[in-house]
Amino acid sequence: MKVIRPMAIVAAYCWLMPFCASAQEASPAQILEGILTPPRSMSEVEPSENEPRRDEWETDRDSFTPSTKTAGRRRLIVESAYTFLDNRRAKETHSFPEFLLRYGVTERVELRLGWNYEVGGAANSVSGSTEGAETTSPHLEREHSLSYGIKTGITEQAGWIPESALILSGFTPTGGPDTATQFVAAYVFGWNLPNRWILDAGIRYSADSAEHDRFALWAPSVVLKAPIGERWDVHAEYFSALSRGKEHDSVEHYFSPGVHYLLTDDVEIGVRLGWGLNDQSARFFCNAGVGWRF
To answer: Residue 275 pairs with which residues in a beta bridge?
Structure first.
């Protein structure tokens, strides 16, 4: 007790000293409020230097589901990728360079211009930057097309209201058996979750024709993205490609994980793998690409 009592006195003195020092400048009510007010929560503390960068950006080629973010005012994003598909009932497909330029006119509006070449027995329906036309042939076919369009931010996240964007694109063949221009509309929305996780979902629609058969193509998708450290990101995604109005409609379902790495603050590389979940989809696909922001 002889040791504990002096220690208790010293502890009480150290605890009361700050309030006593400020007593000359504050009223008794203010002193009492300062004692009873709890400390700020971690969410109220200003971010430290070790927290993630706020200037985050995403390429649209990271996943089948496009990003909800635009390039940013006067920023240019260059994207390119290669895709291999192991088709079930046709020759394998190779798609490259899946080249896409995205230039931000304003913070919410970007212009898009791209070009791609495909060779194989079926069209590439697993890359978000391609039109995803539904054609299957037992013979090896080559085709390439020019893409152009606009992406506009629609809403910003506020509570349960998601961040969202609308993409309108045109795909005009520059070579191959198909000569018709195809227009595609895509709407994507998502939320930034705790721990920097991202949940995005999207839907793509296009009207197409094949051998005088006109039909619609729908492509819903959902992806969950999670960061690992400062520069690594992983994701898991489900997407599908559905035709409606054809004489024989088709349905393709896929599951796809992926990983992405920031080489620098403005250069990103990534790999996606995927497996078809039904007989009408490709057995397997692999996509590898790069994004560069200027």
So the answer is: 255, 284
Cα angle 256, 189, 110; round to 5: 100
Secondary structure of residue 10 in the 3-state scheme:
helix
Kindly report the pTM of this predicted structure.
0.78
Residues 19, 156 within the same domain: no
Kindly state the tokens that stand for 107: 């913070």
Domain that holds residue 234: 76-293
CA 162 to chain centre: 14
Number of domains in the chain: 2
Tally of CB atoms within 10 A around 277: 14
Q: What pLDDT, in 10s, does the model give residues 156-175? A: 999 899 999 999 999 999 98
Average pLDDT of the segment spanning 252-268? 96
182: in domain: yes
- Regarding whether 85 and 29 lie in a shared domain, the answer is no
Identify the CA nearest to 113 among candidates 124, 99, 128.
99
As a whole-number percent, the residues of the chain with pLDDT over 70 amount to 76
Report residue 23 CA to chain centroid gap.
Answer: 55
